[in-house]
Fold:
Amino acid sequence: MTGIRQLADHLKISIGTVSRALNGKPDVNPDTRKRVLEAAEKLGYVANQSGRALRKGETGVIGFMMQTGPEITGRGDTFFMSVFDGVQTVLARHNLDMVAMLCSSEEDPDEYLKRMVARGFADGVILSATRRHEARFEYLAHRNIPFITLGRSLTDVDQPWIDLDFESMAERSVRRMVERGKRDLAFVWPHGDLNLGYVYVERCRAVLAEYGLDLPDARIFHAAASEKGGYDVASQILKAEKRPDGVLLVSESIALGLYRGLAEVGLYPGRDIAVIGMRSPQAEFLAPSLTYFDLSLRDLGAALAESLLAAMPAYREHYPDAPRRQLWPMSFVEGESG
Structure:
């Protein structure tokens, strides 16, 4: 691989002249420019992107921060890979690249973000796994770094966001359960202090109140958003003073473990206990078939990228109609489980 210094040494001219010739500057003799370009092609010259980025004050990179580990994403998670595909499809239009910022489940996400920002490797950031209160939002806003969030929070710095429409999901699930005679519903709270849990439970309780029903704290089961988490929930259900007759899920992976745990004690989803969840590739093979909510993850990723670029001056003109804030709709797929 030939760099600019090797190219200058080969041609026996200054690095400055080679640089100006490569960048099309008008103060370079046409014959010299021709010599430089021909030599660059022949010797396989590769531009130093880090140096260019430093001079321009841009990196050409968008960071997508997510937390990792089986307690958070499960073992067979495909959610983010599909979202990533949509994000990169949009970024490629502008010769930008997405880099996954993988924060270990054992590390504080606030400190991780600060470390990555200090390295200055991204022009913009997409944040996921938004919590009830978010120091990350305030930090990025203070540093004037463009960002968008996949999810909401009580912390609001007027940043763009896209969130799944968990309110509509909760309302439709509760009404379906109640209208089918279910009165003692349970909810599986996803990993940690994620804001989506609060949003979902608040809407569930509001709808249940219309029927004179409630969702007590004792029927909110906390579990990792993984297959094992679902299996553990089955054990919690069996130990409950009063067994729920319906379970609501918001994690893709939990349904697999829950089915297994219920089957081991002879409980049958849809007959003994109703289950409504979210689609995953693995859930398509469950029996009885899962009743679930579905969405296009690739389209979601594309929308995240477009809304982020619309907030960045260099790309804003390309996305004048991109929404700043949006609740992402999900489709309901009727199965046998609930």
User: Anything to note?
Assistant: The first strand starts at residue 61 and ends at 67. DSSP finds 13 helices and twelve strands in the chain. Residues 195-210 form the longest helix (16 residues). Residues 64 and 304 are 10 Å apart (CA to CA).
